[in-house]
Amino acid sequence: MYEGRNLQSEAIRDLFAFMDKVKNAVSKDETIDGKSFKDYPLMPNQYLYFINFTTSRVCFHKNLRKVLGYDEEIDLPLLMNMVHPEDIRIVTKVSEATLAYLMECKIKDTFAINLSISNRTRKKDGTYIKILSQMTIVDTDNEGNILSSVAICSDISNIKPSDEVTYKLDGPEPHIFYDILKKLIDAPMQPDLTEREVEIVRLLAKGNSSKEIASELDISKNTVSTHRKNMMSKLDATNVVDLVLKSRIVI
Questions:
Q1: How many whole angstroms separate alpha carbon 157 and alpha carbon 162?
Q2: Which residue ranges form the domains of the chain, and what is each CATH number?
Q3: Closest CA to 197 of 213, 179, 209
Q4: How far is it, in rounded angstroms, from Cα 25 to Cα 143?
């Protein structure tokens, strides 16, 4: 679905890499599917999505087709690619700062924090509307690591049509969040990948093995391994998942 399309900003890879760290920190073993929100009442201009942080996946969503027009499978890369190119950097950095804040504060009370962020979001037809997203924790493990969250999103185009991205975090010690966010925004960009490296990362993101990638690109398995090693070093990646998340492409 996303073949040949680069992510709009290097910030997205940083957000997904951090989500991978959150996933690895989780110690609670249970089924998290978000279906408890199936009957959650929504207005015609609202949709919601539920993230399972043990898998870093959107496992449930509601009304997204009605508001934005998307009827395909919804995943995090698609949600990020809906964000306007001029808004994407701050949106992903705010999201990453929120995750870092949660990991540092170890907030065990569900619904104890609320992140509100408004930005321009692309509909299926290519037009943009202003969306206010309000995210909160649904569940944590015994150590306070986030297991799941839900975001309630509202079309506020008629109320607040401004192009400005706004955000606010309500919760214990919010200064920690804003300090983290400033550091993230000031952080340098990661180096770009070559055309061949992008091809390999794209195939890795699809779940292909080195042998399958070698066959697909008509190169040797050793060549694929060399490219992977070089990319791991270039992007300071710790594993294949981290490599994919820190790259600038989605499948």
A1: 8
A2: 11-186 (3.30.450.20), 195-246 (1.10.10.10)
A3: 213
A4: 9
* Low pLDDT (below 50) residues in the chain: 1-9, 11, 29, 250-251
Each residue of 66-108: pLDDT tens digit? 999 998 788 888 888 899 989 988 998 898 889 889 888 888 7
Please write the tens of the pLDDT for every residue from 175-184: 999 999 998 8
In Å, how far are 167, 186, 228, 245 from 192, measured between CA atoms?
Answer: 29, 18, 14, 13
Count of CA atoms in the C-beta half-sphere (13 A) of 238: 5
Find the radius of gyration of the CA atoms of the chain: 18
Give ∠ CA 100-103-108 in degrees, rounded to 5.
135
